[in-house]
Automatic annotation (TrEMBL):
Residues 66-139 form the Phosphoribosyl-AMP cyclohydrolase domain. Transmembrane segments: none annotated. Catalyzes the hydrolysis of the adenine ring of phosphoribosyl-AMP. Its cofactor is Zn(2+); Mg(2+). It comes from the Archaea. GO terms for biological process: L-histidine biosynthetic process. This is Phosphoribosyl-AMP cyclohydrolase. Zn(2+) binds at residues 114, 130, 137. It holds the Pfam family PRA-CH. The keyword Isomerase does not apply. It catalyses: 1-(5-phospho-beta-D-ribosyl)-5'-AMP + H2O = 1-(5-phospho-beta-D-ribosyl)-5-[(5-phospho-beta-D-ribosylamino)methylideneamino]imidazole-4-carboxamide. It is found in: Cytoplasm. Its EC number is 3.5.4.19.
Length: 148
C-alpha cells in the first residue's frame, strides 16, 4: 500500500507526463469555450444517457476507427482542446481518448449529421484506436464482416 505522499508523487508524475504528451501533440482548439458551448447546445442528445453518437474517422485513410458517445461537456472539451473526449455510458463519466493508453485522437474536423444526433470526428490517431490493440475497432478479433 502506498502512503498519501507516494500517491501524490505518482499523481504529479502522471500529470507532468501528460502535459509533455500534450505539448508534443501540437493540438489546436477548434473553438473557443463560448463557441464550443453554442455548438454543443445545437446538438440533439437523444441517445443513451443524453448523448450523441460519435464516430471517429482517420482523416488520411478515411477508415472508421471507433464509435462512442459524447455528452455536452465531452463535446466542449473536444472542441476546446482539439483532443477527442467521450462519455462512457457504462462508467457515467467523461474520458479523454488516450488518457491511460497514450493513444490520443487529435481532432482536425468536427461534423454533425442531418439530425444533429451524431457527430463525425476526423482525427489523427496516435497509436491504436481499439482497446484490444488493433488500429480500428472494426479490425479486432471480435469483429466480423459480411460481404455480398
Amino acid at each position: 500500500m502506498h502512503s498519501p505522499r507516494e500517491c501524490q508523487a505518482n499523481k504529479s508524475s502522471t500529470v507532468r507526463q501528460l502535459m509533455r504528451v500534450f505539448d508534443d501533440l501540437e493540438t489546436k482548439p477548434l473553438a473557443t469555450p463560448e463557441e464550443a458551448w453554442k455548438i454543443a447546445r445545437l446538438l440533439n442528445y437523444r441517445h443513451i444517457g443524453g448523448t450523441v453518437v460519435a464516430v471517429a474517422q482517420d482523416i488520411e485513410t478515411r477508415d472508421i476507427l471507433m464509435v462512442g458517445y459524447m455528452d455536452p461537456v465531452a463535446v466542449v472539451l473536444t472542441l476546446t482542446t482539439g483532443l477527442a473526449h467521450y462519455y462512457s455510458t457504462s462508467r457515467n463519466r467523461i474520458w479523454l481518448k488516450g488518457e491511460t493508453s497514450g493513444h490520443f485522437q487529435i481532432v482536425k474536423e468536427f461534423r454533425t449529421d442531418c439530425d444533429r444526433d451524431a457527430v463525425l470526428l476526423k482525427v489523427v490517431q496516435i497509436g491504436v484506436a481499439c482497446h484490444l490493440g488493433t488500429r480500428s475497432c472494426f479490425e479486432s478479433p471480435n469483429s466480423f464482416r459480411i460481404r455480398l
